[in-house]
Amino acid sequence: MAPCSALAISAADPGGGLLPGDLAVFGRLGVLGSGVVTAATVHGTRQPGPVHDLPVTLLRASLEAVLAARPPAATKVGVLTTVPAVRAVARALALLSCPCVLDPGFAPRSGVRLLRPAVLGAVVHDLFPGAALVTLNLLEASALAGFAIRGEADAKAAARRIQALGPSAVLVTGGCAEGPTVVDGLLDGRTWHRFESPRAELPAACGTRGLLSAATTAWLATGETLPDAVARGLGLVRLALAAGWPATPLSLAP
Fold first, then answer.
1. Cβ(159)–Cβ(194) under 8 Å?
2. CA of 131: how far to CAs of 20, 89, 105, 134, 228, in Å?
3. Do the bridges between strand 74-77 and strand 51-53 make them parallel or antiparallel, or are there none, so unpaired?
4. Strand partners, 12
5. Within 13 Å, how many C-alpha atoms sit on residue 206's CB side?
6. DSSP letter assigned to residue 129
7. Helix (H, G, I), strand (E, B) or coil at 7
8. What are phi and psi of 183, to 5 degrees?
9. N or C: which end of the chain has fewer CB within 10 A?
10. pLDDT tens digits, the chain, 254 residues: what are they?
11. Chain centroid to CA 6
């Protein structure tokens, strides 16, 4: 039986993050990956650097080609740097019936922002309504909800407000908070799924949310339910960090 496939749409980072990282996760989990580049960046999510936007005509052609060659069972959308790119991706995804995981990453922990402020409105307007899941950290969820998140009750309220913007489900990751435990919350329809784990005594690593969203996408492609896909994705992040990722290959994580 042919392996299921997943599509990643994001910027390309020569350091192995962003789109290359998504494809690495897909392959690690036995999912056939396809990728469409939206922009090229020198330093990715770790350091500021120049970003070159892919011409929208080439982006449209790439989307058409990949969807014709290998229709995905699930799609992840990451960094989009222009409003025309957002609209091109939205039009392409409208032709699909598979779940889309949207990981806009507009306020990453590293502080390196690849998504320009003017583009965020287009992402919310054009991509949130079709997303099966939107993944956000506490800072991003606070910005979209319009109030500061100080605890789990606030995170749940913020997720409800963001869900009203259109996505079917919202995942608020709690890694940026303080305390001995990390609480991640998934609002799936009307159900709040709480994932609690001890805070690892490890240096914070850039790209963990990208790893999480890519793994969730891969498991959705294999037919997992959304709560199970998120739970397995969170487990993979913990295992990968314990094994030394990103300094060591992801293949070291079971």
1. no
2. 22, 12, 15, 7, 17
3. unpaired
4. 18, 40
5. 19
6. G
7. strand
8. -115, 120
9. N
10. 567 999 999 999 887 788 999 999 999 999 999 999 999 987 655 666 778 899 999 999 999 999 999 999 999 999 999 999 999 999 999 999 999 999 998 876 655 566 777 899 999 999 999 999 999 999 999 999 999 999 999 999 999 999 999 999 999 998 665 665 778 999 999 999 999 877 666 555 556 888 999 999 999 999 999 999 999 999 998 888 777 766 666 654 44
11. 13
Answer whether 186's CB lies under 8 Å from 170's CB: yes
3-state secondary structure of 179: coil
* E strand map for 124-178: 133-137, 169-173
Question: What phi and psi, each to the nearest 5 degrees, are found at residue 77?
Answer: -115, 125
By CB atoms closer than 10 A (0-12, 13-18, 19+), residue 183 is middle
Taking the C-alpha atoms of residue 216 and residue 237, their distance in angstroms, rounded to an integer, is: 11
**Residue 110, token pair as written in the block:** 């590293």
Q: Which residue has the tokens 């287009």?
A: 122
* DSSP states of 187-216: EETTEEEEEEEEPPSS---TTHHHHHHHHH
Give the helix/strand (H/E) hosting 40: strand 32-41
How far is C-alpha 80 from the chain's CA centre? 12
Contact 195, 231 (CB under 8 A): yes
Residues with Cβ < 8 Å from 164, sequence gap 6 or more?
A: none
- Which tokens sit at 143? 């910005």
Separation between Cα atoms, residue 29 and residue 12, nearest integer Å: 21
Length of the chain: 254
Does this model's pTM top 0.85? My answer is: yes
